[in-house]
TrEMBL record:
One of its GO terms (molecular function) is BMP binding. The gene is Chrdl1. It comes from the Eukaryota. Residues 10-129 form the Chordin-like protein 1/2 C-terminal domain. InterPro entries: CHRDL1/2, CHRDL_1/2_C. This is CRDL1 protein. Pfam families: CHRDL_1_2_C. It is found in: Secreted. Keywords: Developmental protein, Glycoprotein, Repeat, Secreted, Signal. One of its GO terms (biological process) is cell differentiation. GO terms for cellular component: extracellular space.
Length: 129
């Protein structure tokens, strides 16, 4: 019998806040880079995938799709990159909306990289929560 490959349980907490797995997929086709950032949520149990299409450093297309966990498991290229809190994900989503407007006409490589860094939680020292 196959054992599920999930090595995380959703009882991971960061300073008392529940954390959720974040995945990334980056691949290039026909001169475009397709970068996908996905978060797995429990309520509702689904995967929210944010898709960026970048051509010559300019964000050409941006959209969000939601899929079931089963559908997500069948998608290629995704790897777990971190875990984040819902509040950090909200900051990421809001920043993404601003960047998608700002970067329609200019190169935004660093802005996109900085935005993804928002999702990485700083390991706090004990007592600093």
């Amino acid at each position: 019998e196959d054992v599920p490959s999930q090595t995380f349980d959703n009882k991971d907490y960061f300073c008392g806040k529940e954390t959720f797995p974040v995945y990334e997929s980056v691949f290039t086709e026909e001169g475009e880079t397709i970068r996908k950032i996905a978060i797995e949520t429990e309520k509702p149990p689904q995967i929210e995938i944010h898709v960026w299409t970048i051509r010559k450093g300019i964000l050409r297309h941006f959209y969000v799709e939601k899929v079931s966990k089963r559908e997500f498991e069948e998608l290629p290229y995704f790897k777990l990159i971190t875990r984040t809190t819902l509040s950090q994900w909200k900051i990421f989503s809001e920043g993404e909306a601003q960047i998608s407007q700002m970067c329609e006409s200019r190169v935004c490589r660093t802005e996109l990289e900085d935005l993804v860094k928002v999702l990485y939680l700083e390991k706090s020292e004990k007592g600093h929560c």
